[in-house]
User: Fold these one by one.
Assistant:
Number 1:
Amino acid sequence: MTTQLEEQTTNVVGARMKRVEDPRMITGAAKYIDDLKLSGMAHVAVLRSPYAHARIRGIDTSRAEAHPDVIDVFTGKDFEHLNPLPCAWQAGGVENFVATPRTLEIDRVTFTGAGVAAVVVETRAAAEDALSLIDVRETCGVLAATAEAIGDRQVRNRGTIGGSLAHADPGADYPTVITALGATVVVQGTGGEREIAADELFTGVFTTALEQGELITAVRVPALGAGVGAAYEKHRHPASGYAAAGVAAVVKVDVGKVTEARIAVGGVTGTPVRATAAEQAMIGIAPADEAAIVAAAGKVAEGLSGAIGDTYATGEYRVHLAQVLAKRALTAAIEAAA
Ligand SMILES: Cc1cc2nc3c(=O)[nH]c(=O)nc-3n(C[C@H](O)[C@H](O)[C@H](O)COP(=O)(O)OP(=O)(O)OC[C@H]3O[C@@H](n4cnc5c(N)ncnc54)[C@H](O)[C@@H]3O)c2cc1C
């Protein structure tokens, strides 16, 4: 065996070899799909959801439609009459499996990569360009963005929002975000159903207002209205991804002034904390007034007594992070409100 290998190596190394590729491929004379131009041929590009779960608040295709190279633009509403698409596996009769595949999603997406709009253009490159002109608005994109900021892919595949809220880790992301959003948790126990405001759910480190035997069955998040933006910013622990500090901000801008603000800080103390002094400082400021935003962000420190310290980050450092992240979250929320 060794002898054969040695012989082969000797024969190959340094020897001239005949190339086996199609000569047209290495001389640039080959034709690719993009080179084919048939009469009446057009290209379709599909805009796909980067989020696994999101509600679609609106799709604005006007800019793409106005583009001179665009032949047509489609959204799910154009194909509503075709849904659900006929599928081989439905005919196969898999028990308890209800598939409702759609050409393009209409009001919500349930998996990453779901199509939400399509453009038809003469060349493939132009079709890709036209996709960037379509504006898709979600009802509450901050929740999807928060999900993406959790741990790593394996953790995100296994963890659940109910488990995260019930576990109430001080460094978890959902508790902070749902506190700022003013969400309500629906809880089912042997005695029936009740609702708990996010503000009242977290009572201490790994401790919640859930009673023995109660399960979280739903989380109700109020839709962000017109002129309202939300954002979450965190400083990830380098090993786990948990927030050493995280700040969620929801801001309403009306006629050139901030009229409402909700800010929650997580990762710094045992539970998420509403930064009420900072919230008040935001009211009435102009959205572009950076100095006023920095001043408001500085006030998050006022609600953070008893900051947690460990080998990675002291309590003092976490309070500092919260102020920096508050400025970023407020700025991003104002941008999202526009
Ligand atoms: C390595 C690692 C990194 C992580 N990084 C992050 C991060 O960056 N950000 C972040 O936010 N989280 C992070 N997490 C937490 C993770 O996302 C999960 O939230 C957490 O591990 C809980 O998992 P689970 O949802 O499967 O709940 P489980 O482990 O199944 O349950 C946790 C607790 O909640 C209870 N419970 C579960 N579901 C419910 C329910 N519906 N109602 C009532 N009680 C319930 C269970 O009985 C148990 O006591 C990380 C976890 C790991 C292991």
Number 2:
Amino acid sequence: MKHLITHILAMLAMTAFFSGTVLAASETYEGRKKCSSCHKSQAKSWRDTAHGKAMDSLKPGARKEAKIKANLDPDKDYTQDKDCVGCHVDGWGQKGGYTVEAPKKNLAAVGCESCHGPGRAYRGDHRKGGEAFEKRGTTTQRKVLADKGQDFQFEEACSACHLNYEGSPWKGAKAPYTPFTPEVDAKYTFDFDKMVKDVKAMHEHYKLDGAFVGEPKFKYHDEFQASAKEGEKSDDKKGKGKD
Ligand code: HEC
Ligand code: HEC
Ligand code: HEC
Ligand code: HEC
């Protein structure tokens, strides 16, 4: 019995080790241009959201009242402050992500990859899956995308920015923390199920043809698709990422 348990524990450790390395190797951020060229409607809608403008809030003079309430200097330029920038951009501290030293416009603000996952490894499969569906009606399993780092749960990704403060209910919290906590104002309380439907912060949803099927499927996917709008079709079949 003891033998068996040791064996199982060793197997679990190996699995964790290998899945960890596979993910780490494929986690490369590229910026929203690579997604926007194929998903024009979402990209256009995203630009007007709070996430799309997240860098503006770090500029001097912006959101004065909110900053004063959180004990920040309303006239200071925080756009290069490493205690701030990380949650207002894509892929901070990650491979290919935004840096203060060599800032890339396509990674500034909370873009596609902050929620959907770093896209380098999976975006080619979107192209292939889309083509297979268009030509032959063949569907592709979402698992293929999930294995390459596409996120279909979202909650952990949101928490890393929204619930990152001392005393947070989220276990992963570590400095630098967000200055905007429920203690500063109850409106900063993060409730995933409510927030993920907030139209001021989230892009609008557009109808999919259904090229990708199966689990993992986002828990509100069917609900969002039921009320989704007709979107613009991609004119970038090769996925070159020009916009
Ligand atoms: C070459 C074009 C292309 C690129 C580049 C691309 N996609 Fe897609 N994507 C598609 C197609 C085609 C589908 C399937 C659409 C359908 O079913 O109607 C899709 C589906 C999706 C879906 C829906 C998946 C589901 O659950 O059904 C999401 C989310 C998505 N893409 C996000 C992204 C993000 C984020 C990026 C950038 C990292 C990206 N895409 C890059 C073409 C692309
Ligand atoms: C990379 C960090 C980051 C991630 C990931 C992130 N957010 Fe945000 N979110 C922000 C920032 C920063 C703002 C504030 C933008 C601004 O006003 O400057 C914000 C604003 C919001 C707001 C608007 C709050 C208000 O006061 O109106 C909502 C709602 C929201 N996010 C929900 C979500 C959800 C849901 C997810 C996950 C699906 C998510 N966010 C993922 C950083 C993030
Ligand atoms: C751990 C992630 C994180 C860090 C670090 C962070 N922020 Fe943010 N910031 C957020 C999130 C999440 C929101 C959205 C809060 C909400 O509206 O619920 C936000 C919102 C804001 C807002 C808009 C608040 C409002 O009510 O209009 C400003 C301004 C801002 N941040 C400035 C800063 C500054 C300045 C720093 C550095 C001193 C900083 N942030 C550091 C995550 C972070
Ligand atoms: C704050 C988080 C967040 C950001 C930023 C974000 N998305 Fe999404 N996106 C979502 C969520 C949540 C869904 C719903 C997923 C589902 O229904 O399966 C979604 C759905 C989608 C879909 C599926 C069809 C639809 O409209 O629902 C596509 C395609 C997509 N996003 C592309 C993008 C692109 C392109 C960007 C960047 C320009 C982007 N997203 C930025 C959270 C985000």
